[in-house]
Amino acid sequence: MLMRTQRDGPVEIAMVGRLGFVGVAAVLGIQRSANRCLMLVPGYALRIAVSDLRRVAHRYPDVQQQLSGYIHALLVQNAQTTLCSARHSLEERLSRWLLLAVDRLDDRVIPVTHDMLSVILGVRRASITTALAELEETGGLVRQRGGIDVCNHAALERRTCECYQIIASEYGYLNRSGLHEHRMSADNSQMRSCLSCF
After folding, report:
1. Are 16 and 37 in contact (CB under 8 A)?
2. What angle do CA 62, 64, 68 make, to 5 degrees?
3. Which of 2, 57, 128, 143 is 20 to 30 Å from 159 at the Cα level?
4. Containing structural domain, residue 7
5. Which residues contact 184 (CB under 8 A, 6 or more apart)?
6. Model confidence over 2-39: pLDDT tens digits?
7. How far is residue 146's CA from residue 7's CA, in Å, rounded to a whole number?
8. Buried b (16+ CB within 10 A) or exposed e, 173-194
9. How many structural domains compose the chain?
């Protein structure tokens, strides 16, 4: 999800993947959203009309509980991302973002460019290039044309701040509590989870 001002341009406020959804405002009964969603990675997403979702959530308390649990996790992510952006180094913030992306994609290769990372993190492209080179030297990732291969999750975790673990733990709790995942089909080997950033 993305927030912006006319003067400052866009910056990431949250990352949504296979365990989440966009349109939180509609679930809360609000007809408009201040955020813009951008799908960075090709994949599939399921869509449901707001009226149908509200009807199902009203009829099945477990669905409402899962929606509420996700909204809580999203609020934790928003708050932690704000803290991280204000207090932590670019290397730590970039490592956090890459690790969260890997978690949401279930794939260690993230098809994202230096330009897109500079928009996401609100820094100059040259700063992203420098930070990625430093992280590559530690063995945590390998830069590829049009993407980044997080080849050593543990090495990258050592370069990030505690914000990654706080956010990951919250989503891990949701997963352990029985969040239902939807897959397009078992035989679709090309399926990739939806990663919406901003």
Report:
1. yes
2. 115
3. 2
4. 2-188+190-194
5. 44, 191
6. 666 667 777 788 898 877 888 898 889 898 888 888 88
7. 28
8. ebeeeebeeeeeeeeeeeebbb
9. 1
